[in-house]
Amino acid sequence: MQNLIRTVVLLLAVSLIAGCSYFGVYKRDIPQGNLITQDMVSQLHPGMSRSQVAYIMGTPLLEAPFSSDQWDYVFYLDEAYGGTVQKRLTLTFQDDQLVDIAKSGDMDSDVELNQGDGPGPAVEGAGESAPVPQIGPSGI
């Protein structure tokens, strides 16, 4: 009887382990850094102020530690069942004006980030929005 129980437990454990490896592991795309699109890069031109650049690109991921004249925007996407996408944009300022734009990576292809797909909690603001209450003549 003990051998039968051990055999059943062993077969159950082997079938569970085999079942887990059959389906594989769920993977997600992992984006990191600042999203850099072709539209954003095409709006940049020498002579722009820091505030104009920040309006278009957002805050930089990296600033040069000893000089605030260089801003780096880095984007890295590790695709779940594919390769990786890397983009880097280095902006150099002189007297609060943009003087140089250095690009590396594939700036021509835009990356689509699917935030609402898959299991897990919903992304805040991704669902249907509640109707905005209207204020009538009575103030309510």
UniProtKB/TrEMBL annotation:
Ranges for region Disordered: 106-140
Q: How does it sit in the membrane?
A: Lipid-anchor
* Molecular-function annotations in GO: protein-macromolecule adaptor activity
One GO location term (cellular component):
Bam protein complex
> Cross-referenced InterPro entries, in alphabetical order?
BamE, BamE-like, BamE_dom
Where is it mainly found?
membrane
- Which keywords annotate this record? Cell outer membrane, Lipoprotein, Membrane, Palmitate, Signal
Q: Which PANTHER family match?
A: OUTER MEMBRANE PROTEIN ASSEMBLY FACTOR BAME (PTHR37482:SF1)
HAMAP family annotated for this entry? OM_assembly_BamE
Give the function comment from the record. Part of the outer membrane protein assembly complex, which is involved in assembly and insertion of beta-barrel proteins into the outer membrane.
Family indicated by similarity:
Belongs to the BamE family.
Q: What is this protein called?
A: Outer membrane protein assembly factor BamE
